[in-house]
Specification:
alpha/beta; Rossmann fold; 7-stranded parallel β-sheet; 3-stranded antiparallel β-sheet; 14 strands; 38% helix; 20% strand; globular; binds guanosine-5'-diphosphate; binds calcium ion
Amino acid sequence: MDTLDVMKIVVLAGGIGGARFLRGLRSAAPEAEITVIGNTGDDISLFGLRVCPDLDTVMYTLGGGVNEDQGWGRADETFTVKEELAAYGVGPSWFGLGDRDFATHIVRTQMLAAGYKLSAVTEALCDRWRPGVRLIPMTDDQVETHVVVEDEQGRRAIHFQEWWVRLRASVPALSIAAVGAEDAKPAPGVLAAIEAADVVLFPPSNPVVSIGTILAVPGIRDAVATRTVVGVSPIIGGAPVSGMADACLTAIGTETSARAVAELYGLGLLDGWLVDEADAAVRVEGIEVRSRPLLMTDEAATADIARAALDLAVELKRAEESR
Ligand code: GDP
Ligand code: CA
């Protein structure tokens, strides 16, 4: 990379962890051209509407419309439609959709029905939100993460959202599958953005159902592997900072630790790995591990984390180029 060029950064992002990291990255590298490849494995159809939780979390967070306390959904939200649906006895009631949020899903569903691809719809929604990054869904094809569970009703596969939101991952997942991923194609612009990227960053997103799902779309992993890649651990001191990522890691037979997640991504994909100070002793063969505070407490702290990830990536890229 020539220092005179605009730095091109690609980030593979899930929801809350990805979105918060991106806000820090945008302020750490205001001149950079940032392309976000968003997870769509969490997408679900509810009330006849297509809902894309991770794309919307990134869009609302970077666009200044997110509910900050919650980390997802709209600020200043009301729930009249949800109450009216409940009054008709129409569920599910466990998925929180507010009135403002409903409008997003109505616009998306209307455009999809008119024949627009999800990538074009996302671009149109971003015309309003101006997230300051280019947000592309990983694929325009339908990929849905399903979870196999076993309870009183026997062994069955349920939608990821039913496991995550309704059951709060309280029933162990026997397996997790990104249904449709093998036949999915990366959305237009995804591979080109990765190929043109100076660096690829993995934010502290869920390694199984966010980043893992994006990497499961044929072509994406191979393209990423050709780049300099630095990741930020979502696991600190043996536990996720928030959410139930440990239940996802357990389902795929991976320990919940910063080291195990780096090993899961693996040599050949990850070049550098940022872990929290609590995990300063972590070493991973073939991967450059650095420790620093990794709690995204506010935008300044998050920008520092993003800058550290970027600095490490540039350092590793230069070392690679001079070899
Ligand atoms: P989701 O789609 O909303 O579940 O969000 P993501 O996939 O983007 O990321 C969720 C992950 O972010 C969880 O595994 C958390 O452990 C991680 N996370 C949340 N806040 C922080 C933080 O402040 N620091 C770090 N390092 N990870 C965080
Ligand atoms: Ca998600």
